[in-house]
From TrEMBL:
This is catechol O-methyltransferase. Its EC number is 2.1.1.6. S-adenosyl-L-methionine binds at V122, S152, E170, G197, P198, S199, Q200, D221. One of its GO terms (molecular function) is magnesium ion binding.
Length: 294
């Protein structure tokens, strides 16, 4: 009470101009506080609006959904967990799948990627198309471009006949290391040989270094802008024979327009399109099969 009385006494001792100046100073401070609060409130509402807009985009736009799942969300989770998404997938398989059972491994990966974190595997829906194509071709020598975590490699290897082999190419050393463990756990390591390096460097070495005469089946699931150049490279290296089959994933999302334009307007290929959906999502996608006619 004493301090309040003292403050009041001091205020009463002020002259009228001084009081006006004090009131004016108080008003300016109050206005600044109100202005700051308004700006802060505007920023909060703007951020909420952006967040709401992004949620709508994620639900309606496949590209935005991929941006969120594959870049933003993944980077945040990696930072928190101090572990890559691919390592988390492998750990889930090791803990939940049955060793030596390829189907169990595939089911575990599909479960993780559909319920926990999206990943760029071919997935169960398009996997059926891959299975049927491998069964129809019955390859002795198959090539996969883009190993990633080994999902499609396991899928192909489990359908290979006795004595057949799969060569799978992966540029990323971390992915290659995880895929090796995945193949070993699934029990298909004797049918699969993993080749590390860029596809444009590995393909020219297939004949001499890896004793490949021609390829019966090629699965393209690596960088989409490499589909067309690598197909041309396979031809230039005489790795395709009459009847060799190419199957390309994600020709709609993210898309491989140059590849589609090349094979569909080339008399050396007979093409078939298989409409489907982007792995673990509802967005439309497709696979393209191209039979080399010689």
């Amino acid at each position: 009470m004493k301090s309040k009385k003292q403050d009041f006494s001091v205020l009463m001792m002020l002259t009228s101009p001084e009081r006006k100046c004090l009131r004016s100073d108080f008003a300016r401070k109050a206005f600044k506080m109100l202005e700051s609060s308004s700006v802060l409130l505007f920023i909060v509402f703007l951020l909420l609006f952006i967040l709401l807009l992004f949620v709508v985009l994620i639900r309606r736009n496949p590209a935005a959904a991929l941006l969120w799942k594959e870049i933003i969300r993944e980077k945040i989770t990696n930072l928190i967990m101090n572990q890559s998404k691919e390592q988390r997938i492998l750990n889930f398989v090791l803990q939940n799948a049955v060793r030596g059972d390829p189907c169990s491994v595939l089911d575990a990966i599909d479960k993780y990627c559909s319920q926990k974190e999206w990943a760029m595997n071919v997935g169960s829906e398009k996997g059926v198309i891959l299975d049927k194509t491998v069964e129809e071709v019955s390859p002795s020598v198959a090539l996969e471009l883009g190993t990633y975590c080994g999902y499609s490699g396991v899928r192909i290897a489990r359908r290979l006949k006795e004595g057949a082999r799969l060569l799978t190419v992966e540029f990323n050393p971390e992915f290659a290391a995880i895929a090796k463990q995945m193949f070993e756990f699934a029990g298909v390591q004797d049918k699969v040989r993993l080749l590390e390096g860029p596809s444009q460097e590995v393909i020219p070495q297939l004949k001499k270094k890896y004793e490949v005469d021609t390829l019966d089946f090629v699965f393209l699931d690596h960088w989409k802008d490499r589909y067309a150049p690598d197909t041309i490279l396979l031809q230039e290296c005489n790795l395709l024979r009459k009847g060799s089959v190419l199957l390309a994933d994600n020709v709609i999302i993210p898309g491989a327009p140059e590849f589609l334009n090349y094979i569909r307007n080339n008399s050396h290929f007979q093409c078939t399109n298989y409409p489907s959906h982007l792995e673990y999502m509802k967005a439309g996608d497709a696979m393209e099969k191209a039979v080399f006619l010689g």
